[in-house]
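S1.2 Input.
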Amino acid sequence: MSAEATNPGAHSRRRGLPRIDLRRLGRAALLGPASRDRLPDAMGHVADAHRAHHPDADLSVLHKAYVLAESSHRGQYRKSGEPYITHPLAVTLILAELGAETTTLTASLLHDTVEDTEVTLDQVRAEFGEEVCYLVDGVTKLEKVDYGAAAEPETFRKMLVATGNDVRVMSIKLADRLHNMRTLGVMRPEKQARIAKVTSDVLIPLAERLGVQALKTELEDLVFAILHPEEYAHTRALIADNATAGDALAAISEDVRRVLREAGIPAEVLVRPRHFVSVHRSRLKRGELRGTDFGRLLVLVGEDADCYAVLGELHTCFTPVISEFKDFVAAPKFNLYQSLHTAVAGPDGAVAEVLIRTHQMHKVAEAGVVALGNPYASVDSADPAESPGPGADPGSGAAPQDGERTDPTRPGWLSRLLEWQQAAPDPDTFWTTLRADLAQDREITVFRAEGGLLGLPAGATCVDAAYAQYGEAAHGCLGARVNGRLAPLSTVLSDGDTVQLLLAQDAASGPSPEWLDHARTAAARIAITGWLAAHPGAVGTPDAAPRASHALTADRRGVANAVVDLPGATVRLAGCCTPVPPDAVTGFPVRGGVVRVHRQECRAVDRMRALDREPVPVSWGDASECQVTLYVESFGRPRLLADLTEAIATAGAAIVSATVEPPSEQRVRHTYTLELPDAAGLSGLMRAMRDVPGVYDVSRAQHPATA
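S1.3 Output.
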């Protein structure tokens, strides 16, 4: 594939920045600086981009790093023929354009020196300090001669662990891969495809999770061109055929500017063309595209409150498409992204998508964690030398707030990756699981009932939430309440759900094999598989397989201490509602001279009245004994039946009969007919049964009576 085919072009470079001229930089690199006290000519682009974001930056350390990189790479050439120094220069320029601070740029200039030259980590540490050394080491590949086929997965494992202590490691790796993808056209097609596949499976999801949209979108287009050349060519032609599509958005943008100007809201309104992959996805979703589908409107304001003011004006003066509204300002995405999304229809019916954000939100939306500068530096000091450095306790510097979306030093998704990778020592298992985990490209946030948040991949279930919150203690999870309602562990969670997980007090409880069918996260799958392997003969929580009902029946006669004013009648307490003193009751004559006594709220009473049956007055006698039927709803676990019968016996009740229905989705229903020495003890008995671990509800029988 040609270099042109792997280079989608200016359409995807939304910032309008010129691409680096590798040949000119190569000549400048070979010629070296004009004088020893001046920044090398080849660093001019980097210096300009860096000063645009950091006007007071000290460029002397960049000068020093460039001199070491240029001298150590001298004589080395890329496959494209340019001097090798053009690669670290281009990587550094990418990061400088995103606003990376000086330490990151220094490390990016040196990122290949330890791997490809005679420079050692000790030399980097001695000349540039521990922070730069850590970043360089983090992106240095492991040698194939030492690791063989495991070199690539183990290199990524090493980078992930390093990123856990300093997210700037992955920022450098992403910029490194972007430049390599830009110049991939000189390689064999099969090698292009292999590199593009790894980029698609691992690095693009990581760019999304770190919020670096500027790198993610260009990587997507480059991968799209290599892995799907026909679809890419079709999309490229579609964009070329609609070269004037931006005119429709430009017309709407003028209307938006006028509306905001009249409302007195200072705002910048821009038309942002969609990149290739975005156009391709829109075509698949909507079919034929209109002019406004080839781009979006971006409205930039100064303050958060202005975002909502703009939204109000747009929804007042245009016809809003309510289904397209999303508020990521009040509820930011897990990757720090904030913006208001809406869509409005113009006078001709054309629908334009609109993004509304502040300038700072836009900076973070484009550059993600790169825009945060050094997230480990003290908030009271601008001197990078005073930063705690990689591996330090984040709390010793700028203390991160609770919640993974506001903690750039250790996002929640990264913590989860680092946890499960320790349980996957085999490189193949790690590599397969990593790609599967990152393939879940959308995250949800659920709220814990006791406070706090959990970040989970879309499609996650209560099983995943349990292991995310409790780790291995989740082996004893019995069930959950989702938004206040009981739910099986297989329940799929939605963004914004509130989850309360119920754990067994029995430490011997363990997961069922069917949990693997419901686990979506690598942490849950690895933990469940490990427990099952360690306990091959153990019985975990009940699975969904049907079992026969178990009934226990005692040879006791029911007690009926109800009195009716009907000579010779036999009084029977209805089994459908099992009335006990002091329930309000009524009776109805049935065949055989029997009067059936029901609680007045029983549904059978309404049915009898509908049949014009005459009720018989009923009163309670002096006897205190009574019989009652109770329904128990519980999560299955070992010894549950024994614990329930013990609670019943302790309360002084006798079991007349008991039925345990087959479990369904780990929930078990019990029916007990009990004889109590005193009806006054019923409420205490029900409380004692509810206190049995695994029981979540105990109720009186109220089902419709049978004929």
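S1.4 Remarks. The chain has a mean pLDDT of 78.
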